[in-house]
Structures are given as structure tokens and as C-alpha cells.
Write a structure and sequence with these properties.
With 262 residues, the chain is α+β, with helices and mostly antiparallel strands. It is built from six helices and 16 strands. It has two domains: 6-44, Roll (Structural Genomics Hypothetical 15.5 Kd Protein In mrcA-pckA Intergenic Region, Chain A); 55-261, 2-Layer Sandwich (Pseudouridine synthase). Strand 13 and strand 14 (204-205) form a beta hairpin. Responsible for synthesis of pseudouridine from uracil-2605 in 23S ribosomal RNA.
Length: 262
Amino acid sequence: MGLASRRTVEEWIRAGRLRLNDRPAQLGDRVKPGDRIKLDGKLIEWRRATAFPRVILYHKPEGELVTRDDPEGRPTVFDRLPVLRRGRWLAVGRLDLNTSGLLILTTDGDLANRLMHPRYGWEREYAVRILGTLAPEDQTQLLEGIVLEDGPAKFNTLVDIGGQGANHWYRVTIGEGRNREVRRMFEALGYTVSRLIRVRYGPIALPPRLKRGMWQELPPEEVSRLFGIPLPKGLATAAKPRIPRPRASRPSRSYDNKKRRG
């Protein structure tokens, strides 16, 4: 229960030093929120012991779903993730079937909800390739705001990063993650998105050496620093290595190489 080690608590109980809700505590008692615990007659604060959150960064390829089960049997990101002894991986937001890039997953539901909630202001950044080039007035409209079927939407920033031939690349940032929002914003103005890559989520950027179909676990120190979660004493802080997940097809070039070719 986060009060002391199990052995120490058992010793307190045997010695009659611990009381639970004004009666002597017994071995095997379960403590729940709202219970009053006294040690040697003094009311003490306690917290339920919880596992420190694990967080992994996954470089999602196109063609994978962010779902656990698909009726059509298509591949999902969960097929590639490390197996957990207890709990499960929770995706922080979603990327649609044809979108690639950074996907954050955690074992902590509260943390996942906090990272997704708009009030915390976790900005998303995408590299977007479209057919053609944005007209100046359309760039202005995307920054000032357009109306989609589920409400207004706008980019925080929009930067032209070049291209060749029929394709052109842009970097955009947005402060929320509605379903297919980036694609729908371009489509609302008559543009076709031919590639979409999430390159950043809040302060976390897609690691440049993390190839598609691979995941990397954040060390506990980094989880503590990024998300403001106290680091328990004695928790190992060594970073875990990147672990490649086998793929049937050969790794493809990064989007930077592709954008140079257009």
C-alpha cells in the first residue's frame, strides 16, 4: 500500500502497532481509499502503490491499424510490441491506416488520457506531402481556420519545406488530434494528401534512427522528466535498447530522402 515494505508492515501488525479504521490491523487486511490507518496511535498518510509507467515510442509504418483486433485480419501495431506480464499497452491517440510516424504507447491509463486531453496543450507536428502546391490564400485559411463537419480547425504553424515534380512537402503543427483532421483540412480545400508522417508529439520527436516497425522504450528518468512523475527510489534507470521487429519487406528510406525526390 505504499506505506512501508511488506515485511515491515507485517511486523507492525504482529506487534499490535498498526490500527485500521480504529481496530487492530490483521494480516491479510486489504486497504481501500478512505480507510484510516494509525501507527502507534498517530494517523498516517498512505498511498496505494502503483507501478511506474512504462512508455515506448513506436515508428508506425503505413498499413498498420492502431487497434487490438481487426475483423479483416489486417496487421496492427500491437502485433509488434513487447509482451507485458501484466497490464497492456495503451496508445496515446491514433494514426490512421495510411499515416506513419511517431506513436506513443504507455501502460498507464491516466497518463495516456492526460497526453490526449486538449487542455494540456500537447502539440502534434506532421510532415505532409500533397499533390501540387498550396496557394497563398489557402495557406492563410489553414492558419486562420476552416470549418469541418465536426467543428472549426486550424494549424498553429505551416511551413513550406519544398519538393520536386508534382509533390510538395509542408510541416504543420496542430494542438489537437481529431480523427483524420490533418488530411481533412487539406481535402476541404481541394488538395490530396499523398503522404502523412507524425514527427513530433509534444516535446517528444520521432527518433531519427528509429526505423519503421521498430520501438524504443523511454528510460524511467526520461518518463519522470517529461511527464512530471516522481521517480521511485531504487528504480533502474538504464535506457533499454531499441529492439527491431522483423519485417517481411525491406526498410524504406526516410521521408527526407523521399521529399527530395518529390
